[in-house]
Specification:
The chain is an all-alpha fold. It has five helices and no strands. The chain is rod-shaped, with a radius of gyration of 34 Å. The two termini are 42 Å apart.
Length: 196
Amino acid sequence: MMASKVLRKQYIVDNMQYKMLLIMFIYILLGILLSGFLVFFPSIMGLADVGKEQYAAAKEVLLLHKRFWPAILVVTVILGGHSIFLFHRIFGPLYRFKCTMKDISQGDLSYNVKIRKNDFLKEEEDIMNNMITSLRKDLVSLKADNALLAESIRELYADLEDTDVPLDTVRDKVKEVRQKGEKLTRGFEIFKTDNS
C-alpha cells in the first residue's frame, strides 16, 4: 500500500513520457522559432532601409526583443508544466493497467483496477474491471466444477474398492463423473488459446 502512494507522486511513470515530452518540446521550439520569425522578420526587413526608417526599425527590433523572449519563456514554462500534468493523467492509468496485467499474467485476479478521480482512461478502467470480474467469475465456476469432479472421482474410487457395491451403482457413478468432466470441459471452451 505504501509503495502505491509513492508511485502516485511520481510524475514520470513510463519511459514513453520522456518521448512525449520531447515531442512537445520540439513542437514548442518550432512554435517559438516560427513566432519569432513572424514577429521579427518585418522589422529586420526595415533595417535594409536607409535613414530614419532604419533607425525606427532597429528601435522596434530591440523593443520586440526585450518583450518577446520573456513572454515566450513564460509561455514555454506554463505549457511544459501543463504537459507534464496532462501526460501524468494518461500515463498514470497506463502504468496502473500495466501493473495489473502483470499480476493477471501471474494468476492474481483478487482486485479491480482503480485509477485516480481526475485521470483519463475511465472507460478503459471499466473495460479492464469487467474483464477481471468475468475471468474471476469463470475461474470460481471452474474451480467449483473441478472440486465436484474430484469428489465424484474419490467416491467412484471408494466404490470400486468396495466389492459389495452393485455394478449398476458403479455405472451410475462413472456416468456422473463423465457428466461432471464434460461440464468442466465446456467451462474451458470459453477460453480461446490459438488463432484458429
